[in-house]
Every structure is written in C-alpha cells, then in structure tokens.
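[#protein-structures] MJ: dropping Protein farnesyltransferase subunit beta here for a structure pass
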Amino acid sequence: MSVKSVYHQVIYRQTSPKLNNTSHGFKYIQTHRILEFDRVFEQHYQYLKKGLRHLSDAYECLDASRPWLCFWILHSLELLEEPIPPAVASDVCQFLARCQSPTGGFAGGPGQHAHLAPTYAAVNALCIIGTEEAYNVIDRQKLLDFLWSVKQPDGSFMMHVGGEVDVRSAYCAASVASLTYILTPKLFENTTNWILSCQNWEGGLSGVPGLEAHGGYSFCGTAALVILGKEHMLDLKSLLRWVVSRQMRFEGGFQGRCNKLVDGCYSFWQAGLLPLLHRALFKEGESELSQQRWLFEQQALQEYILLCCQSPTGGLLDKPGKSRDFYHTCYCLSGLSIAQHFGNMELHHETILGKEENRLAPTHPVYNICPEKVARALRHFHRLSVTETKNETFYSF
Ligand SMILES: [Zn+2]
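AK: finished. structure tokens for Protein farnesyltransferase subunit beta:
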C-alpha cells in the first residue's frame, strides 16, 4: 500500500458520511470556539513557573521522578518561548547535580539510585538550560560507565542495575549518549536487532518482544533507531498504518493503543512518530511525500489539544474531566508543536490553528527539546574529549 493511500484512508475516516452529521456540527463548534478561546497563555506560564519552586502534596508520589518535573516544566516553558530566569536555571542545575549518582547517571532524587529515565530527563533539562554551568553538571565518563552497567548482552538495556528491561531504556540510553557525544557502536551492539524484535504484527512497537503495540514504546523504539541510523530496518509502512490509525476520527486526538480512549499525552508519543517516519520514508526514496504536511490530520489534533486539553486555570491535561499535571502539560504542548510545524531547519511550513498567539516554538522530534538546543549541546560536547577507557571510535554526527 502506498503512503498516499494510507493517508487518504485517514482523511476519509475523518470525513466519513456515517459521522458527517455529528462531526460537522462538532467541528463547527470547535472552530467557532477556538477563535475566542485560544491557549490560556498567561495561566500556563504562571502554573509552570510556580511548579519550579513549589509542588503540592499531590506530587509526593513523584519523589523518584524529580528530574522529570524539571524537564516537563522547562520544555513547556521553551515551547511557550518563556525565558528561564538565570537564577532559577542555576538552581535547577545545582539540584540536578545533587541527583547525579557518584557511580554515574542521574537518580530520581538526591541520594537515590541512578536510573535511565531520570537520566534522560536530567540531560534533556540541562541541554534546555544550555549554559556552561548546565553542561558541566554532566559527568560524561561516569555516564558512560552507568550505561555500560545496564547494557545487556542481547542489546537491550535495564532501566537501572537489577531493574526491568523495555524499549524505553534503549531510547533513554541512545538519547543521552548521542547528546553528550559518548555514543559508541560497541555500547549499542545488538540494540538495533533487539528493538526491531519489538515491532509486532500490528505494525507498532511493544515494550518488550511479543506484547501489544503502544504509542510510547513505538516512539521510543523508532527514535532510538533514528539515533542509531537504522530506522529503515523497521517495516515503515506497517508502522505508518498503525500510527495514523491511532488518531481518532471524532476527537482528533490520539489513543495510545488500539481500543483505548484518546489521551492528550499521545499527541506527542504518537504524532511525534510522523516526523520520524516522514524522514525515514523520504530517505527510502518515497516520492509521494508532501513537502508541507506530516501524514496525519494536524488541524484536528490542534483542535483536540486547544479545546479539550487546556485547563482554564493553566496547565494541560489528558482529557476533559481529568486534572492538569506537568507531564500532560509537557506532552500536550509538544504534540501541539509537532502539529504546527512541518519540516526541519532548512524546509519549514507552519499550520497554526486559531490566532497567531497559539504558535509554539518547534521541537526536535527525536529528543523533544528545541532544535537549536540540540545543535548547541552537540557542538559543546563534540569539542570535549572523553577518556577512552573502552578504546573505541566515537560516532560523528
Ligand atoms: Zn496521558
């Protein structure tokens, strides 16, 4: 099946006669309201700014995910193009330094064990801050030691020493290793084949081989393969078919798995796959690709996020009736950014629904931080040398 016909199937579903009466009315109300509503810009900013200094009791359960809170908030602020005051940025650097384990990698909080998920979040947060102080927090040699300590012979990675294995860990490891320029072929030996074995009959990827396809794991596996330069080894057409079928015809947002409800955070985990697939299909010589649009309904996703996921008091959420939180704020905004911006540094086309003030900054679809921050981090860490204890050649980007 060609890329174009997969895309047309999606468009057809969006406007299928069966749903036309309902969806037309719905779309009219949505479009009409968007002009008045827009994003609750100032409230989002106040909510995020407060979260960097004070969290309510409700966040106690995230005591082992504190670098994540830094990343979710800092990335949301950069998407809203709100500068981070230097004093706050410095405080975040000092806090993340306390989360760094003496044996390498970052933990969920000071004094905890290193774990790949907060390591990814901490490195991303520090790259968003992008100052010398931020870069200097990262002990790259020890980070490399930590990555080796969780690497498995089959190519997979444990989330922490003695912990579980799933495709998130391969992405977290590839992301931090590439951003800090410590990625080596040896460290990722067999990883490509292990990730490829997570793509199942549905077309998406599961957490480990043999389970159900899932948006978060599909993003992590595909983004890791992009970093390793092996994404062409996936069955790209079946992955494309699976992911575009996760955008729901009525709501416009994405579900995470087949037969699940739409959830705002999949605006990034699922829609974020489309730029990766677009690039991969382009490299494979696919001639029917648009030079202005991704292969999903970008406006419908923007409608869902703007209308259904914004808390009027600031912050974004899963769906109406749910509470706002920093995770959904980050990933709803990240998905909104993907839906607004097509292209890369050279080729760029914007589709902004509603007022021009709705425009967010672009995000890098592999790392999910702003593209210039990725470029700056790569430049910075490229200049540094690492003690080559493993005697390996480093990848060049
Ligand atoms: Zn969610």
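MJ: nice. Residues 263, 265, 318, 328 surround zinc ion (CB under 6 Å).
AK: one more thing. The first helix runs from residue 3 to 14.
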